[in-house]
């Protein structure tokens, strides 16, 4: 299949995990009815963005992957014949957890998971307390409809994340995220940060000749206002679909994989990479 409709579920904090699960099931049904074949959630969709403070009790929010959550949504994927990308808090072992995306194919098969590689530590984003850096590497998943890759939030600022995912064959890179302006920051700074967030990710699509889809949450949680703006950009970096900054909605985009292949033949960035000259990228800094 060369033309794929994808859907990004831009949602807000729900009153419980069960409410979040039910809301997503409704969104999946709606997206499937509107022709979507691959559906992605925002980062940590079943919970609030809980990383604002360091609280050991919040590890109780984590779920095993695979486990009951993926089993539940495997049935949903099979029912609607859609691929699902679910961003979850993964319980791996006592005191060991990850920020993880679970990928389920259209027949309900659990294809695997990606664990967030870059973990931030900033005011209002206390993620290093909760998340162990990913150890599965950058990878892709062959689904019924397309070969997809996933990176998560802070990964989006690192061109290496998108590059290595694309080099694994990703035709579409999905990025569940939770990003916005904390109350202590002026609105002007928040606007600049949002613009930088858009620009860097659109650049990934250009540099790698692929489609790129970012899914953000909306709403204000304990002073952090998430700026939504879930979007899809094509291989020219054009935002071909974009959500609002404040509404819970489903953002749709049609991805033409044949056009993407034709584009790569004309702009063969992978062919012209000087892999013999990139040793320095493995150093922390060139002192």
Give me the secondary-structure topology.
Layout: E1 3-10, H1 17-33, E2 38-41, H2 68-80, E3 83-93, E4 96-104, E5 110-115, E6 140-142, E7 147-150, H3 159-167, E8 172-176, E9 180-181, H4 187-208, E10 211-215, E11 218-221, E12 224-227, E13 231-233, E14 239-242, E15 249-256, H5 257-266
Parallel strand pairs: 1-2, 2-3, 7-8, 8-10
Antiparallel strand pairs: 1-15, 3-4, 4-5, 6-7, 9-12, 10-13, 11-12, 13-14
Helix pairs in contact: 1-2, 3-4
Provide an overview of this structure:
The structure is a single chain. The chain is α/β, with parallel strands linked by helices and 287 residues long. 25% of the residues lie in helices and 28% in strands. The chain is built from 5 helices and 15 strands. The chain has helices spanning 17-33, 68-80, 159-167, 187-208, 257-266, and strands at residues 3-10, 38-41, 83-93, 96-104, 110-115, 140-142, 147-150, 172-176, 180-181, 211-215, 218-221, 224-227, 231-233, 239-242, 249-256. The strands form 3 sheets. A 6-stranded mixed beta sheet has the order 5-4-3-2-1-15. It has a 6-stranded mixed beta sheet with strand order 6-7-8-10-13-14, covered by helices on one side. Strand 2 (38-41), helix 2 and strand 3 form a beta-alpha-beta unit. Helix 1 packs parallel to helix 2. The longest helix is centred in the C-terminal third of the chain and has 22 residues, at 187-208. The protein is globular and about 50 Å long. The N and C termini lie far apart (49 Å).
Overall mean pLDDT:
96
State the helical fraction.
Answer: 10-25%
How are the strands ordered across the major sheet?
5-4-3-2-1-15
Computed structural class: alpha/beta
Largest sheet: 6 strands, mixed
CA distance, first residue to last residue: 49 Å
Beta fraction of the residues?
A: 25-35%
Q: Which oligomeric state applies?
A: single chain
Number of beta-strand segments: 15
Order of helices and strands: EHEHEEEEEHEEHEEEEEEH
Question: If you compute it from the alpha carbons, what radius of gyration comes out, rounded to the nearest whole angstrom?
Answer: 18 Å
Number of helices: 5
Shape: globular
Question: Poorly predicted ranges (pLDDT <50, ≥5 residues)?
Answer: none
């Amino acid at each position: 299949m060369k033309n794929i409709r994808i859907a990004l579920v831009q949602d807000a904090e729900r009153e419980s995990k069960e409410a979040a699960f039910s809301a997503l099931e409704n969104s999946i049904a709606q997206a499937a009815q509107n022709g979507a074949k691959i559906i992605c959630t925002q980062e940590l969709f079943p919970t609030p963005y809980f990383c604002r403070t360091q609280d050991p009790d919040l590890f109780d929010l984590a779920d095993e992957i695979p486990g009951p959550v993926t089993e539940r949504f495997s049935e949903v994927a099979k029912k609607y014949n859609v691929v699902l990308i679910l961003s979850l808090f993964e319980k791996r072992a006592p005191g060991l957890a990850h920020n993880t995306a679970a990928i389920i194919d259209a027949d309900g098969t659990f294809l695997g998971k990606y664990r967030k590689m870059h973990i931030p530590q900033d005011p209002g984003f206390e993620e290093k307390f909760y998340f162990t850096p990913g150890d599965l590497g950058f990878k892709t998943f062959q689904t019924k409809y397309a070969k997809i890759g996933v990176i998560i939030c802070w990964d989006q600022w690192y061109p290496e994340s998108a590059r290595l995912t694309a080099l694994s064959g990703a035709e579409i890179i999905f990025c569940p995220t939770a990003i916005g302006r904390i109350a202590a920051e002026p609105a002007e700074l928040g606007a600049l940060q949002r613009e930088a967030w858009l620009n860097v990710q659109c650049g990934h699509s250009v540099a790698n000749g692929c489609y790129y889809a970012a899914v953000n949450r909306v709403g204000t949680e304990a002073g952090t206002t998430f700026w939504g703006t879930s979007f899809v950009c094509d291989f020219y970096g054009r935002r071909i679909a974009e959500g609002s900054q404040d509404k819970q909605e489903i953002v749709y985009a049609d991805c033409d994989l044949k056009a993407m292949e034709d584009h790569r033949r004309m702009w063969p960035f992978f062919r012209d990479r000087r892999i013999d000259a990139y040793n320095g990228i493995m150093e922390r800094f060139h002192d």
